[in-house]
Amino acid sequence: MGTVTVQQLVDRFSLEVLVGGEHLHRPIEKPKAHRPGLEFTGYFDFFSHAHVQVLGRKEIAYLHKLSDEDRNERIGNVVKYHPPCFVVTRSLEGLPYLTKHCEREGIPLLRTAQPTFRFLDLVDTFLAKALAPEIAIHGVCVNVSGIGILLRGKSGVGKSETAHTLIRRGHRLVADDMVVLKKIGPETILGTHNGTNKEFLALRSIGLVNVSRLYGRRAFQDETRIVLDIELTKWQDNALNNDLELEPKFTEYMDVRIPHIEIQLQPGRDVAGLVEAAANNFYLKMQGYSAVDEFMRRLEQEHR
Hints:
This protein is α/β, with parallel strands linked by helices. The protein is 33% helix and 29% strand. It has helices spanning 6-13, 37-40, 57-65, 68-79, 96-105, 116-130, 159-168, 211-215, 271-286, 291-302; strands at 4-5, 16-19, 27-28, 53-55, 86-88, 109-111, 134-144, 147-152, 172-185, 188-192, 200-203, 207-210, 223-234, 249-253, 256-265. The strands form four sheets. The protein has a five-stranded mixed β-barrel. Strands 2-6-5-4 form a four-stranded mixed beta sheet. β7 and β8 (147-152) form a beta hairpin. The protein is elongated, with a radius of gyration of 26 Å. The termini are far apart.
């Protein structure tokens, strides 16, 4: 699982630091932000105190209406749980009471001009990816016609060369050699790079190339949802199943099942073209179309 600090949140969203600049190293361990409206009224049964606390117009207006004594008590009851930070949206002002409590407890108080719901959406997306469980595997990740594909196989089998051909045909590289997989949902795996290998593709006999510099910015994509796992293997005579439709197979990554296809290699075989066909065929299946079903219907019509 990744880690995020308040400092990274400040940098990512250009947040204004009102108080607690010396405490920006504090970790954020929960992926969703929380609005502590109920907590300011005294209800703490399900307080998500480990989350980023976001204060919008409703929360600030409510605090403004309280007496000084009640306001100090309500804010004090919340800050004593020491959440990672507070973020005030819409550039709202008149916050001396918040400033006092956050400064005393060593909690960063931040501010953004973003509307509340817009900021919540942005920060939730950012934290969900940054804090997602992750693993790193050897392979190549590409996006082919909008379909995220993980290419696997033994070293030297031709994964990077296949990716290069796909890039020249207008598709996109996500990561080469080392692919970082993030589980961002019960059925969703995101593929991305590790930062160091961003935009780089290693080609045998050629060396390291930067695909964005070589083929333009469209040749690279920062991340993609993995929906197909394709394994490149050496050709084995009489090993291929030539049925009309192969038995579905899956590969599991962090308990998420991804459809798996094996493509055997042989000199002269258009591997990149087969990967394109696999991606397009998968898309059609997701739309409810099956070439096998249509073929069988035609056979039935011929025999009527």
